[in-house]
Structures are given as structure tokens and as C-alpha cells.
Amino acid sequence: MKLWGGRFKKGESKLMEDFNSSLSFDRRLYNQDINGSLAHVKMLAKCGILTENEKDKIIEGLNSILSDIEEGKLLIDGDAEDIHSFVEMNLIQRIGDTGKKLHTARSRNDQVAVDMRLYTKAKAKEVSSYIDELLAVIKKLADENNVIMPGYTHLQRAQVVTFKHHMMAYYSMFSRDKKRVLNAIEIMNESPLGCCALAGTTYNTDRDFTAKELGFNKPVDNFLDGVSDRDYIIELNSCFAIIMMHLSRLSEELILWSSKEFDFVLIDDEFSTGSSIMPQKKNPDAAELIRGKTGRVYGSLMSILSTMKGIPLAYNKDMQEDKEQFFDALDTVMSCLKIMSGMLSTLTIKEQNMFRAVKRGFLNATEVADYLVGKGMPFRDAHGVVGSIVLYCEEKNSAIEDLNIEELKKFSELFDQDVYDFIDYESTLNRGIKKNLK
Ligand code: ARG
Question: Which of 4, 84, 112 most suits a substitution to test ligand 1, by most atoms within 8 Å of the C-beta?
């Protein structure tokens, strides 16, 4: 059954019907579709286009559809073309001819646009709350583990940092992600309802009323843009892609750190899996899956960007392709944020192993050079001297701070007893990173 067909001589082929149908994926918009219709019908009555009685009947019908869906009494399936047709046809079945008046001064073009904006806005807020949870988990983990660890560049041990400072880098990243999501919500917060197919309507409607009723800041300025703008989907998908990139980098670190080679952290059993053949194995599948799923979120972004790039104004059916990929990206980013929060809130930090890696990594070499510079040696020369000390230590299998002062003096007369305090890891941290830690 269809909402159109008057000008057709033949029915649609089954093949085409299946190809065209979006019900299987846009059914998740049922709540927004019904709420959009409720606002629309109130506006129609307010503007004298429907009677109060007709409005009440339609509202009652729509509310009964909503509660039946929510209580599982009405399943969203069958041969309706999309969720909009499904709800409207159901309404007509329930309340008869009055139901046929719902679609006055509206098109499915502005209907789907308003449904998607409502849905996207609500879900983006949910994403932002998952980011908040993750931020709190990161902060707690960082505060509880203000311990020394090696800092890396080129994945080579570079200078001493703290685990706290390392984790707070991710705190900064996810804080930016949250701002990006909230900013995208702010930009998209305009109502397309009332743009109709592309050119508005000859009825005297009130777009300000529906915009306010649905919680938008204002109606969109331009009808053609209102029905064919999918920027907010692209923008949010791009926010999601950046979130996934951050989650993936963090996952990569957790994978490395939980390997025997690093052995810095223990991922809890709750977020690990075993091997079906190698009994000793504990695999960081949660982190690997997040890293893997990053690709599909990037893919969704490329998909919607490509779909939109050649579409003339205004609505074209290509735009139906905005949904599946976007929903997938949304579901993915939400589950990955939750999994990451779970994984980090149960993570065990192996402080001793991190400290051992610091000692074995000559992570105070830069500070030894800085010490010599403080005693008057040019930095480039100091760099060379310390390079030779590192070579010597490697042969002796010892750390710089474990050399006695006579050994150090062989490399430079400038070394004195105070060097040991200066290159001590804690004092290095106090002079450096910890000074700047919030
Ligand atoms: N399922 C359609 C979509 O997602 C709804 C809009 C249909 N509009 C139309 N003119 N056929 O884009």
C-alpha cells in the first residue's frame, strides 16, 4: 500500500518496491516522525487549516500509534515504503478519513528532514554524555596513577613522563571532541518543517510555531536548503571519525602496553578474550575491535560525502542513502565509547614495570645534557658527551645514575655530586611535566 499512485497506470514492480523501501532502517525514526507530526497538526489547527476536533482526533491516533509501538503491540514492518508512510497509513486505518488530513501543507521531504534532525540531535547529545563518562573515567585513572612512565617518540623511549600526564593527553583530545559535537548540534538546531517539497506552501502556516514546539532555535532560512541540507550528518559523522581516531590511538597503546613486551597494564578479564587453541593467551579484543571499527566510521563519512557531492538542489532520492551509514557510525561510536570507559575503569597499572622501563631507557639523558649546559658547556657538545656516556652504560648494562662520580668525570670534569639530584627522575618530573599538570 502506498501514499501515492493516482497518476500511475501500472503498479510498481516488486523488485523496485524492495529497492526503494527504507522502512527496514528508517523505522528507528518512529518517535521523531510521530513527534514531528504532532507539532505539525497542532500548527495546522492553530492556523485554522484543521478544526480543533480534527486535531484532537489526529493527536489521539498518533499517540496511540506511539504507545502501541513502544509497548510492542505494533510492529514496524509490512509493505509501507518508509516510516512516514507507515505512520500515516496506520493513522488512517485507526481514525479514518480525518487521518488523511495530516499531510496537508507538508511533504515527505521536509518530514524526513525534520525527523533526521530531531533524531540526530538527540543522539548527538547521548554521544556527548558518553564522552563525559569517558572523561570522568580517564581523570580518575590518571589521578590514581600519578606514577613515572617512559614517554615515547618514534615509539622509542624518549623522556620520563607520568602515566597521569600521558592519560590526560587523551582527556584533552576527548574534551575537544565533546566541544565539536556540541558545536555541531548548535549549528544544526534549525527546523526544516514547513519547507514542504522544496518551495513552501500556499497555506498560511506558522514555521516559528513548529520550530519552537520541536525545540529548535528557529526555522531554516531557505526552503531549498532546508529539505536538501545534510551538512549536519556529515559534520557529526566527521566528529565521530575524529572520536574513533582518538579511541583507536588509545586502543593501540592499550594493546601494546598489555603485551608481555611492554607489560605496563593489565586489561581486566571482563574486557579480554581467550584463544581457542593457545591456553596461555589473553587477548585485548575490546581494544582491537575499537581500532578495527574506526575504519567503518571513516567509511561512513566517505560514503555520505560522496553521496552528496553531485546532487542538484533540492531533494533527490540519493539522500535516502544518508541513513544506514550514519546510523552505523552512530551505533559504532556509542558502543566504542562505552567499551573504552569500561576497559579503562577496570585497568590495572603495573607501576614497577613502568619504572623499570624508565631506568633501562636512559630517560634522563636529556637532563644530563641540561646539567652540563647549566655548568657552562654548549648544548651541542653536551649532547655528544652524553651520547658517549649512553654507549658506555649500554656496554656495562647500567643506568647513567648508577655510574659513580669518577666514571662520570672521565667524560667531563664538569660533573659533580649534585648531578645525581639533578637527573633523578622525580626531580626531573617536578621541574618539567608536574609543574604544568592540572
Ligand atoms: N525515505 C525517504 C528518504 O529517506 C523519505 C523522503 C521521500 N521523499 C520523496 N520525495 N520520495 O529520503
Answer: 112
Please tell us whether the domain made up of 108-148+162-351 is placed in CATH 1.20.200.10: yes
Percent of the chain surpassing pLDDT 90: 90
**Does any ligand 1 atom lie closer than 6 A to the CB of residue 320?**
yes
275 is catalytic: yes
pLDDT tens digit sequence for 167-223: 999 999 999 999 999 999 999 999 999 999 999 999 999 999 999 999 999 999 999
Residue among 140, 173, 165, 155 at smallest CA distance from 428: 165
Average pLDDT rounded to a whole number, residues 295-302: 98
Cβ neighbours around 226 below 10 Å, total: 27
pLDDT band at 235 (very low <50, low <70, confident <90, very high): very high
- Give backbone dihedrals phi and psi of 398, rounded to 5 degrees, phi first: -135, 170
Cell output for 113: 528532514
Assign domain 362-436 to its CATH superfamily. Fumarase/aspartase (C-terminal domain) (1.10.40.30)
Superfamily of domain 14-101: Fumarase/aspartase (N-terminal domain) (1.10.275.10)
Q: Determine how many CB atoms are found less than 10 A away from the CB of residue 254.
A: 24
Spans of all domains in the chain:
14-101, 108-148+162-351, 362-436
366 CB near ligand 1 (under 6 Å): no
Q: What is the pTM of this model?
A: 0.93
